[in-house]
Write a structure and sequence with these properties.
The chain is of the alpha/beta class. It folds into two domains: about 240 residues, Metallo-beta-lactamase, Chain A (4-Layer Sandwich), CATH 3.60.15; about 170 residues, Rossmann fold. About 30% of the residues lie in helices and about 20% in strands. The protein has 14 helices and 20 strands. The protein has a six-stranded mixed beta sheet. It has a six-stranded mixed beta sheet with strand order 7-8-9-10-11-20, covered by helices on one side. Strands 14-13-15-12-16-19 form a six-stranded parallel beta sheet, sandwiched between helices. The chain is globular, with a radius of gyration of 21 Å. The structure holds zinc ion (ZN). The site of zinc ion (ZN) has 5 residues, from loops. Zinc ion (ZN) binds next to loops.
């Protein structure tokens, strides 16, 4: 018997956590943080309905924080077992989890400085040190290897979403259960197409874009239009990008557009230490993505990397039109907030979002036409052009999800739709 309890990513795209009970064994599939609306983020502080010490293991589909970011807390609260993931996910968690701890520490420090919390002192959800301790629990398993754990086995398959991302097949006593993880796009320039499903009795599928079809235009052309339009106004283009995955794809397109002289030779900045490291990781995981070594070099060379805070601040002080790629992708934190504070209020500039914007984030508000956004406690007027290129997303759209589901040989006995806001999940159902 397999039993699944949905502890997160229900009615929302964040907080992925599924308790899977197989016989006497209990494993947690994904261990993500809630992000977006404050009511959701507050759920990160609630006690889990399961005892972390009673879990036999954790399985991660990929390194994005909404799938891995609760791990430091799980370990701090008593989890003693191993965390299984692909080698790519292990490498990316090595940069994403400590960064998440750092952001939590910064939030707490901000709350203490400005007395914005009812707790004195406000404490971080977890720290960089908690994240480093959690990383010691990771055990890598390659794609395609069926790995046995007592009564059941797991196999990771490339989900084509970001480096290391996997769908997870769980087999037990002649029954199979597939967790999609986040499903990528079949024709992404960086990631490989998601592997076909094959046989599965039960499927749990994400539905981030369950009610939408991505814009079919060529992303390179649309990006070129935006760069040229912004440059024509003498403005700067700020791109809040997910440091892992989307930042590299944007650089890939910008390198190609520059080489073909389809855009002017504006300075491009990759202002995210995490994105810089993630770009370097592409070399280490050849064969898991579509980029050649020459592509990796081109995307590394197109941008000036600004690892230090002083270099990051210098970008804002320089009035020359430019392109700034910086994290986080939904403008929920990170260095991009400093750039938005400087550039969002000027009509000449453009803020370009590159993927799904969860409800309650600054990204979602700006796309919906908010006249101002609150950054570091102050309202910043939004006068810049705001654009969102869905087609740059690392998620399959509704049609692509259905195509992927159709790779299931035979009809599964059940399909659970998860990881979507209610309208999207219902439309896909
Ligand atoms: Zn993801």
């Amino acid at each position: 018997m397999m039993r699944v309890t949905f502890l997160g990513a229900t009615g929302t795209v964040t907080g992925s956590k599924y308790l899977v009970e197989i016989g006497a064994q209990r494993v947690l599939l994904d261990c993500g943080l809630f992000q977006g609306y404050k009511q959701l983020r507050l759920r990160n502080w609630e006690r889990l309905p399961i005892d972390p010490a009673g879990l036999d293991g954790v399985i991660l589909t990929h390194a994005h924080i909404d799938h891995s970011g609760y791990l430091p807390l799980l370990v701090r609260n008593g989890f003693k077992g191993r965390v299984y993931c692909t080698p790519g996910t292990q490498d990316l968690c090595g940069i994403l989890l400590p960064d998440s701890g750092f952001l939590q520490e910064q939030d707490a420090a901000f709350a203490n400085r400005h007395r914005t919390s009812k707790h004195h002192p406000a404490l971080p959800l977890y720290t960089q040190e908690d994240a480093r301790v959690a990383l010691k629990h990771l055990s890598p398993i390659d794609y395609g290897i069926e790995h046995g754990f007592g009564d059941f086995s797991i196999t990771f398959r490339n989900a084509g979403h970001i480096l290391g991302a996997a769908s997870v097949m769980i087999r037990h006593g002649g029954m199979s259960l597939l967790f999609s993880g986040d499903v990528g796009r079949p024709a992404d320039p960086v990631t490989l197409a998601p592997e076909p499903i094959g046989e599965a009795d039960h499927i749990v599928v994400e539905s981030t874009y369950g009610d939408r079809i991505h814009d079919p235009r060529d992303p390179a052309e649309v990006l070129a239009d935006i760069v040229n339009r912004t440059a024509g106004r003498g403005g700067t283009l700020v791109i809040p990008a997910f440091a892992v995955g989307r930042a590299q794809m944007l650089l890939y397109y910008l390198a190609r557009l520059k080489a073909a002289r389809h855009i002017p030779d504006l300075p491009v900045y990759l202002d995210s230490p995490m994105a810089i490291e993630a770009s370097e990781m592409l070399y280490r995981h050849r064969g898991e993505h579509r980029l050649s070594d020459a592509d990796c070099r081109a995307l590394a060379e197109v941008a000036r990397e600004t690892p230090s805070v002083a270099e990051s601040k210098a970008i804002d002080a320089n009035p020359v039109p430019k392109i700034v790629v910086s994290a986080s992708g939904m403008a929920t934190g990170g260095r991009v907030l400093h750039h938005l504070r400087v550039f969002a209020s000027d009509r000449r500039n453009t803020i370009l979002f590159a993927g799904f914007q969860a409800g309650g984030t600054r990204g979602a508000a700006m796309i919906a036409g908010a006249e101002s956004v609150k950054i570091f406690g102050e309202y910043v007027p939004v006068r810049a052009e705001v654009a969102n290129l869905d087609m740059l997303s690392a998620h399959a759209d509704a049609g692509e999800l259905l195509d992927w589901l159709a790779t299931c040989s035979g009809t599964p006995r059940s399909v659970y739709v998860t990881h979507g806001e209610p309208a999207a999940a219902d439309a896909l159902r």
